[in-house]
Amino acid sequence: MFYLRNKLVAVVVLLMAIFVFAACTSEEESSSGASSSSSGSTLTTVLERGQLVCGVNDNLTGFGVVNSSGQFEGFDIDYCKAVAAAILGDSSKVEYVPLTASARFEALAANEIDMLIRNTTWTASRDRDLGNDFTVTTFYDGQGMMVKASSGYDSIESMSGATVCVLQGTTTELNLDDRFASNGIPYTPLTFETNDPLQAAYEEGRCDGWTTDKSGLASKRAGFSNPSDHVVLAETLSKEPLGPLTRDNDSEFYDVVQWVVFGMMQAEESGITSSNVASMASNPTDPGMARLLGVGFDGGEPSDFSFGIPVDFMQAVISQVGNYGEVYDRHLVPLGLTREGSLNAQWTDGGLIYAPPFR
Amino acid sequence: MYLHMFLSLFQQLKSEESIGKKLEVLFYDRSFRKLMVQLVFSILMIVFFFYLIARAFSLELGFGHLGSRAGFGISHAFLIEYTSNDSRWQAYFVGIINTIRVSFIGILLATVLGVLMGLARLSKNFLISRISAGYVEFIRNTPLLIQIIFWQLVLLQLPKISDALTFGGFSVWSNRGILLPFINSIENGSLWFLILLIGLIVTLFARSYLSKYREENVNFFSPNLISLVFFLTIALISYFLLGINLYVDVPSLKVNEYGTYIQSGGFLLSPEFSAILFALVLYTGTFITEIVRGSIQSLPKGQTEAAQALGLSSYQRITLIILPQALRSIIPPLTNQYLNLTKNSSLSVAIAYPDVFMVSRTIMNNAGHALPMLFLILITFLGLSLFISIFMNFLNRRVTRIGA
Lengths: 359, 404
Prior knowledge:
The complex is a heterodimer of chains A (359) and B (404).
Chain A: H1 2-36, H2 41-49, E1 52-56, E2 59-60, E3 64-66, E4 72-73, H3 75-88, E5 94-98, H4 104-109, E6 115-116, H5 124-129, E7 132-134, E8 139-148, E9 162-167, H6 171-181, E10 187-192, H7 195-203, E11 209-213, H8 214-223, E12 230-232, E13 239-242, E14 245-247, H9 251-270, H10 277-282, H11 287-293, H12 313-320, H13 324-331
Parallel strand pairs in A: 1-5, 1-6, 9-10, 9-11
Antiparallel strand pairs in A: 2-3, 3-4, 7-14, 8-11, 8-12, 8-13
Chain B: H1 2-15, H2 19-28, H3 30-57, H4 88-121, H5 126-140, H6 144-156, E1 172-174, E2 177-180, E3 182-185, H7 189-216, H8 223-241, E4 246-249, E5 252-255, E6 261-264, E7 267-269, H9 271-297, H10 301-309, H11 314-344, H12 356-367, H13 370-401
Antiparallel strand pairs in B: 1-2, 2-7, 3-4, 5-6
Helix pairs in contact in B: 1-2, 4-5, 4-9, 4-12, 5-9, 6-9, 7-8, 9-11, 10-11, 11-13, 12-13
């Protein structure tokens, strides 16, 4: 009896010892990881792992969705592929982690994912408080309101007393309140955690309006059995710049993500597409193009920007994924989100898509 | 005693010559070995907790962010007022009230349902006992979250608000909720309600003490009469002091010029509240059914037979003989189910019922500080659970004392 109890105690002590030992060693690992983070730990991790882990949406047609053959596809997904192509040379080396709006920042901060691209709006408090860095805006969105075409609504002002369905943990929830409450318009918000019950509630008439980013509304509207029964009001409630995020103090990886996106914008401006990138690389027409594609101009040496990835990373990106315009046309034009005259046109066409020089 | 043991050990050590022998003596001494194991265990525990505390303090702690303006709306605010201009603390309290509201009503209804179904399960009527068994097996063996979403979808199948059922203007039924007429006061209505509630509890306590007093003083007034007069006095005095002006609040439905249906008046049972309430009551009810059945079956059969022999009706048999005895073994497991119901109410985040967990998640998303917020939620649920436990322990002591 006493011996049995002693043995039990011994086993428990042993387990505790192992646990403390494991905790100490894991702390050493994490502290060494933190010390090397200034030299780009995520980039090293991705290179060592041979795979990029990307936090995405799996339920937003056009941006991030699982298609009928079980593959992730969409505008946001293509940026995961582009970063994987740039770092690893293969756009298929991506593991997609579907995340809810409310769980996404914790997943990034907790090292569960390398980068987050899940139609996430860039705001000051998110940049400062949540331990992440926003890179480049890939899509300039704005919050809109979808209502039934049969209702009499023509503006937010006309929606006095309405019930509005909104997703939890989003800036939309706050913008909605700003727009209604601050103008003294009474309303009832119905806040859902996930999209499916929200959509059911909207379709069954539990709420009069559904508010989220206009891109998201366009995507959902396209998925309805009869899209013309629903209208997106012309009014825009907010600025919603969407783009990829990395962790704070991870500047090497941050730079890679940022310049891959810039490279895709620059490629469109320079007229480089997935179909002509090979011929352009073998015979660049100007030094700027040669610098972008990481090849020498006129027999010279290629310029190396020292991102810690292959010099010709943009060739892999453009040949496997395409330039900004190709990605946009592939995923967003089918939703009815036209580019012409919008903020997402190239700066040369009056939009905001503008890449700093590759120099 | 320990001192004595160690003194003898010390003597033994002294008598040995070589260090090897001394170590051998130490190793074979059982009490010394035990002491060493306990010492190592304690040190490891202390190191482990210091490690956890040190890790926690490297994060940003504190609740300063809860003082800022909330900035988001909440669909269900009960008893206390809330607008988006209030602080995040106020939003958090609205969440707590919503959790308490669904848990409290849920506990009451689940108890009634569980007791009835538990009795039904033991009924000699084949149909009734099978219905109860079917209810238990079907509901208990399916996930609660799916049941909650199921009830939400079912309630959304009520008529759309444009085709709402009005029952001649007394009530409005649509998938925006069920509006029932109720008695309200123009001023101080909820305050009066609160006073009546407290008055009722005080009266019930007073009545139980009066009953005990009357056992010794038979000529004393009837405790029921005194209690009734006492309660009515409280009600009437507060009625006139607060200037209560009662009227029947009949719900109404209007359409404005843009086609928005505006519901007003009445008592609103929203689909979200109803869905989470139905799901929690039905789910917890199955466990209470089994507890009631088990406790009654554990009573000796002679109790039932004796009651029958005395000529008691079946109603009297259950309320006077069976249930009071069964209660002793019902209450402890029942407490567990009440705690489970309260904790499960945090699943309401799935269907847009703003309980404390849902409101906190919104705050965490807007302002970060996840660790202190989660800590606050844990403390809140701990508080609710301890309150239920204390109340149930009090009840348990009373029940076990009767007839003991």
